[in-house]
Every structure is written in structure tokens, then in C-alpha cells.
Amino acid sequence: MEMKLTIRRVPTVVSNYQEDSAATGGCGRNCLGDCCLPVSKLPLYAFKANPQKDAPAKPLVNLLLTEWENRMARGLFRYDVTACETKVIPGNLGFVAQLNEGRHLKKRPTEFRVDRVLQPFDPAKFNFTKVGQEEVLFQFENGGSGDSYFVESALIPEDRAPNVVAINVSPIEYGHVLLIPRVLDQLPQRIDQESFLLALQMAAEAASPYFRLGYNSLGAFATINHLHFQAYYLSVPFPVEKAATQKIPLAEDTMKSGVNVSKLINYPVRGLVFEGGNTLNDLANVVSNACIWLQDNNVPYNVLISDCGKRIFLFPQCYAEKQALGEVSQELLDTQVNPAVWEISGHIVLKRRNDYEEASETSAWKLLAEVSLSEERFEEVKAYIFSAAGLVQSDEAEEEVSEGEDTTYPPVPVRPLPVTEGCLVLQ
Amino acid sequence: MATASSGEAAGPGDHQDHDRRLASSLTARYSDWVLEALDELPGSFLLTDPALAGHPIVYASRGLAALTGYARREVLGRNARVFQGAATDRAAVAGVREAVRTQRAHQVAILNYRRDGSPHWVLLHLAPVFHAHDGSLLHFLAVQVPIAAAGRGAPRRAAPAACREEAGRVEEDFPCASVTAKVFVDMDKRGLEAEEPRVVSDSDKEKAMNTANSIFSTLNRYSKLTGLVVCGKRCDSFGIPALSSSLNLSLGRIKQSFVLTDPSLPDNPIIYVSDAFESLTEVLLPKISIRKDGSSFRDLLHVSPIRDASGKVAFHIWVHLDVGTKHDFNGLTPEVWQLGAVGAVRVAVRGLSASGSLLRPSR
Domain GDPGP1-like N-terminal, which positions (chain A) (predicted)? Predict the structure, then answer.
């Protein structure tokens, strides 16, 4: 008999259609399923295949925020996220804490299986084809080499399933959306090269360092087993983006793709940072290969796409497993924080006012440290990832890496912030 | 000045309570971290709380002892006049007192006295710390920078007459000197050098300024009340807070036609006008207000509250909707495009507010 590792948690509602009892037969409500979508029209955003380096306008973000505001005016969100208190916690890394009592459902928790990163798609469970079209902001397709453009109303493509951007009705921040590649194909939550490239293209098209995309695998707190990325806009730096990194020297011949890899240091969660790449495609290849190895080998992970798609953070994690095995302290469990990609990156949504008031860099660090793989395990996983992604660490590096290993990551002081405008004292 | 008795007869327990109360003057507004952070700053400086009886010192920096000979604990809870003495120029003191009363920044070279009674010259840099949003005065900051002797030669003014006896003239203002003669009996022995007026060099001023800036920066960083921005200048007398340059910059990038008003102020005055709006109508800041019964305006404007990071309404945005417009909006209908201003302002305000850079005083 197969043993299953599960945890109980209350899933986040990302669509207004999620809580409906299983839809039976004929839809008639303009969803994204085969029943409705092929004959529907949706707005379409066609992005540039080869973006110019210095494009000043940011049409995608403007459009996204406009459409998002429109959905807000139409009352599609479960709460007003701008009414949720947010603050940057004092400290070196500047964790961002938010008090969001509304995200918490007063519902029975569901059981989630956490020991299998890859699970087959189950059409009976909630998935994004059941979402109403009003929750979709636009299709997101490659427009070829011309300029990007927007069309209010366009038929969906005949020859392939459309990629759509939909709202998250329980937003973590203003502008929180879901990128769902090839929605009609009903892909399970697993990364492949094409979908990962699409996510990078969206980050690049947005052209704003404050618009980030994230991915959670199953077992790393994804709730819906239908391939999707999340994205939102927050105009403060994320702690992980400020953390120090140490480049991992690569052997000459593996540097053809131009991708370089670093390790995060002085951050509570161990992770890799991928940058560069001669093209976006090269970067997508390397990182997706790493993700594929992880999911094929049952290692849950989270990915943060930051800096307009130029920096990608990969975090293998083990919190859910620890939780299922009863290895997490009750104190941490009581905060009910499920450390998915945003939390790991340093944006932490808290459900209890007490936790919010008391939030400190120390408490955030403590929580996130539980998520990290141990040093030993991380090095092991890293070696496999390298091999899967066609990277070879150069020999000299091995010595460097094995020296000065520390298992604790004490906070590192950062340069003092420049004086805030308006606080100069005298002329 | 030797150990002037403070009139506190307390046991150790009372002392601790007293210290805690003083410390909470800071930790209640900023976070608990602020004390440690201030401890790391160099220089000799004080923070005083004008709201507490006697306008006491609530924080003294680590550098205080090196400069003045006073241990930090010795000055906590006392008025800053403790540093003045007989030969301290009364005019200088009056200037400082006036600055405190009018809550303005002030710089003056002044003769202070160390714990052992020896006089020394400092550049005193006084600055009020305001709550940027409501303009309330939170603390005073006083930085002391030692300054060098002027060139040799006759002093330009005679030193003030020796000690006065003022029977405990109690004033709440911080620089008041109330001195009894017997304390300064040794003054004459220190020599006239101490009483020569000093020339304040640019580098002294710069040093004072830098110290003050570091302190402001620290207070802002550790601010507990979200959106609490402290600044050295109070908003102008109309009480309309001007927007920080970061916010102005973000708003300036928004191409739609809109204004922002501040509903927390009487008459909900306009505090920002986008360029596109300005080109439509003649709007004069800051006196024009949009009233609810301004019907001819209302039909054209979409209003929405904009919240800051604390979740409270900071502004109202009024977007001008011109449905008859012929412009191309990248495929969006004019109305939908124009409403894009709302989303853009929301994220700008929320982000800047979370990092404490939403408002600044005018000018």
C-alpha cells in the first residue's frame, strides 16, 4: 500500500469559480473551456519577439494595471488589497510584510499531497478552464518581430491553445495576475521549456524591475494542478534581490550559452541565481532544464523571475515535507504562512495582526530558514541540476566552495540607505 | 557644571521606570530598533521631547561622553540647558530658545560646559523633527560639533559677566539657562581663551549637517507608524503636504489627465495636477477645491480613493474622462485608457508609502 504524505491547508481562492461545486455538463457561462472559448473573443496582447534594448514605454504594465483596475471597479476581487496594511520591516534585507486577514478562508482545510511534485491533470478538480472570461485580462501571444500591439477583441487562435493572463481574485498585491500557458491544453503544473520561455518573455515585455513572475511546483505550495505562473507589481526591492551572491565559476566550454550561475549567500533560503544568456532562449533552456530535473526527481521548488527576466532565482525546498512529518514547530505553523515563492523572496503575507505588529527581520529569517534545504542536500541537488542543465563547475571553484562553508547565514549589513528626500535639515 | 542635583530621590527601580518612559518617547513612534541604530551613529547629539514636561532629553548619543564628559544616563530626563553655563552668551541662548518656540531649525556657535566645569565651544545644530503627514512636532534634534579656536587676538566682545543667580527660573524651553553662582566659581581659572568667540568653518557645518541627516535617515528607516516620514521642515501654513520628489516623479510619468486631492484637509484641496489636466483647464494650486456640489465638474470626473501602505485613504484621484476624444490609445477605449491613471497612481502611492517616501514638506 502506498504511503502518502499530505498536509492540510486552506487553499487560496484564485478564481470566483473555484468554489462552485463541480460543474456538470453544458456550461453556458462563458468559461475558458472547450465549450465556450473556441467561439469567444478575448482581448489580445501581442508582444515583440525581439524587444529593443531601450524601449522607454511600458505598455504591458500600463495595460495590465488598467485592466486590473477595471476588474476592481466591477467588484471581481474578494477584497481590496490596497486596504491591507503593508510595511517594509526595518533591517538589512527589508522584508515586506502585509497584514491580510481576508485571504484566510473560513473553510475546512483540504488535504494536499506533498510527496509528489508531478501529478496528472485531473479535469474534475478546479482548473483554469472553469474560470469565467471576465476574469481574463487578455491573451498573451507572440506577435512576431513587429511592435507589440493590443486588440480589444480578438478570436482565439485556431491552430493552438491561447495563453491567457487572468486575475487572481485573492491578490497579494495590486495587479496580481496568473499567466496560464495554453489554457485549453490543460497542462499539469510542471515546467517545460516553452512555457518557461513565455514567462521570461512576459517579464521582458513588462520591462519593469518591479513586475516579477513566480512559480510554485506542487509540494512547494502550488494549489492548483494546472500550469500557471503568478505575477504582480510591487515598487520596492525584494529582499532576495538585495542578498549577496557568489558566482560559481564554470568550465570554459559550458559557457557557450552565456548563462552564469551564482549561489545565494547570507540569505535564509539556499538558492541559485541564473543570469545572462546570449538570448532569452538560452536562459530559458538552462533554467527549465534545471526545473525539469527537480520535478522529475520529486524535489519541490519555487522560481522567481526578476529584473525584467534577467535574473532568475531557483529555490529547491522541503517545508511541506517537514510539515507532513511533524518537524515544524507549532509556533511557525500557527502563523499559517505557507512559504511559496513570494514569501521566500521576502514578501510575507500574515494573517494575524499580532504577527504583523511583531514582524521583524529575525522572525522572517527564522521562518524562511525552515524552508531551505540543508547545505549538504543543497550541494547534492546543485550537482544534479548542473549536470541536467549542461553546466560544469570549473575545478578551482570546487576548492573555493568547499572552504569557508557555514551552515548559518547571519544577516549581512548593507550600505546605509541614501537619505530620504525631504528629510534634509537645513539649506 | 558639577553634579547638579536633579531633585530625583529615587531608588533603582524608579530610575528604570523613568528611563523606560523616556526611551518610549522614541520607541513608541519609531521601532525598538531605533535606539540601537542611533547608538551606531557617530557624533554627539541629543533628542528631546517637547511634549513631555520639562522638555527633557530622551536620547543621548554614544559620542556625548567624549565631548562633554557626561555619561548618557546622567543627562537623560534633564533639560538640555544642563550644558550651558555662566559664560554662555545670552543672546545665543535666546536665539536657540526662539528657534525652539517657533519650531525652526537653527545653528549657532555657543559656549558649553563639560561635566567637570570646563567650557568649550560647539556648533549647536538644532532641528525639529516633524511628522510629515500631519505636521506635528515629534522631537528636537541637537547636534554638537566641537569647533576650533579663532585666531589669536583680542576678543571681539567682552565675555558676559560671570554667573547670574536666578532662582530656579523654570522654563519649558530647552536652552534656558538657570544658573547659580557657586557652581561656576572656577570659571576664571579656565582663562579667556575659552571665551573667545569662535569662527565656524564650512567643514564644521557640514559635519553637523551630515550627522543630522544620518539621524533623520535612521528615524525614517525605523519608523513604526507606516507612512510616518519625518522631516526637518514643516508643511506650509495651509497645512497642505507637498509630495515627495519620488512620488512626483512617478506621477509625472502618468500621461492621463487627473488631479489628486487630500480629503484629510479642509476643502479637500488639490495637491497634484497632471500635465495633461493642466493643459485642459486653468487650475491654480493650492486654493482651488472641488466641492461635492461642483456639478459641472463632476460629470466629467471619475473619483476613486487612493490608499497608502497603511490601508488608509491618502488621496482622492479625479480622472478626467473625455469620451469624445479622438486619440488612439493602443487599442483601448478612451474610458478604459483614461482610467489607467488610477492603477498607476495606486501602485506608486502604495510602494512609496511602504518605504516611507510618500510625502515631504513644501519648498
Answer: 60-232
Residue B143 lies in a domain: yes
Question: Residue B175 falls within a domain, yes or no?
Answer: yes
- B347:A235 CB<8 A: yes
Instruction: Return d(Cα A313, Cα A346) in angstroms, integer.
Output: 12
Q: Note which residues in 307-326 of chain B have CB less than 8 A from chain A.
A: 307, 309-311
Cα–Cα distances (Å) from B249 to B182, B243, B246, in that order, read 60, 10, 5
Number of A to B CB contacts under 8 A, please give it. Answer: 148
Q: Shortest CB distance from B343 goes to which of A66, A151, A423?
A: A66
Residue A174 near residue B346 (C-beta atoms within 8 A): yes
Q: What range does the domain containing B10 cover?
A: 5-231
Are B353 and B226 within 8 A, CB to CB? yes
Q: Provide, as residue numbers in chain A, all residues whose Cβ is less than 8 Å from the Cβ of B29.
A: none
CB-CB: which of A210, A416, A422 is closest to B229?
Answer: A422
Residue in A68, A87, A150 closest to B332 by CB: A150
Q: How many domains does chain B have?
A: 2
Query: Is A104 a catalytic site residue?
Result: no
My answer on whether omega of the bond before A239 falls inside 30° of 0, hence cis, is no
Write out chain B's pLDDT in tens, 363 residues. 333 334 444 455 666 777 777 888 888 777 777 888 899 899 999 999 887 777 899 999 999 989 999 998 899 999 998 998 878 877 788 778 878 876 778 888 999 999 999 999 999 999 988 776 666 778 899 999 998 765 443 333 333 333 333 322 323 223 323 322 222 223 333 344 445 556 788 888 888 888 888 888 888 777 755 445 565 554 433 344 567 766 877 788 788 888 898 888 877 788 888 888 776 654 433 333 344 434 334 345 678 899 998 888 999 998 887 666 666 666 777 777 888 889 999 998 998 888 776 665 333
B105, A68: Cβ pair inside 8 Å? no
Residue B240 counted as domain residue: no
Do the Cβ atoms of A423 and B220 come within 8 Å? yes
Q: Is A182 left (phi over 0), alpha (psi -120 to 50) or beta?
A: left
Q: Is B301 in the same domain as B197?
A: no
Do B123 and B173 reside in the same domain of the chain?
Answer: yes
CB contact under 8 A, A420 and B357: yes
Q: Please give the ipTM for the structure prediction.
A: 0.77
